[in-house]
Amino acid sequence: MLMLPSHISFSQAVVSFPLFLSFSGLYHFSSLGLGLRYEQKLFFFFLFLTSLQILCLKFYSFLYFFS
Q1: Integer angstrom CA distances of residue 37 from 28, 49, 52
Q2: What is the pLDDT of residue 52?
Q3: Is residue 51 part of a domain?
Q4: H or E stretch covering 63
Q5: How do residues 4-50 score in pLDDT, each as one tens digit?
Q6: Which domain holds residue 59?
Q7: Could you please report the per-residue DSSP string of 4-61?
Q8: 18-22: long-range pairs with CB below 8 Å, 24+
Q9: How far is residue 48's CA from residue 18's CA, in Å, rounded to a whole number?
Q10: 3-state per-residue secondary structure call for 40-56
C-alpha cells in the first residue's frame, strides 16, 4: 500500500510542476546531444522522476481527500 508523506505541501507540488516541465525539457534536449555528460543526464533524469513522484502523490491525495 502506498503511504502518502504528510510533509509534502500543496505549494511544493505547485513548485514542482514547473520543475517537472523544465527538467523533462532539459533531459529531452540533452538526449538530443547538446553536450551534457552522462552524469548530468542522469541527474536531470532523477530530478524529473522526483518531481513526477511529488505530483503523483499530491494528485492521489487530492483524489483521496474528495472521495
Answers
A1: 13, 19, 23
A2: 80
A3: yes
A4: helix 38-65
A5: 455 555 566 556 666 666 666 665 655 555 566 777 777 777 877 88
A6: 12-65
A7: PPTT--HHHHHHHHHHHHHHHHHHHHHHT-SS--HHHHHHHHHHHHHHHHHHHHHHHH
A8: 19/47, 19/51, 20/48, 20/51, 20/52, 20/55
A9: 11
A10: HHHHHHHHHHHHHHHHH
Residue with cell 523533462: 24
Total domains in the chain come to 1
pLDDT value for 2: 46
pLDDT at 13: 57
- For 51-61, write each residue's pLDDT tens digit: 788 888 888 78
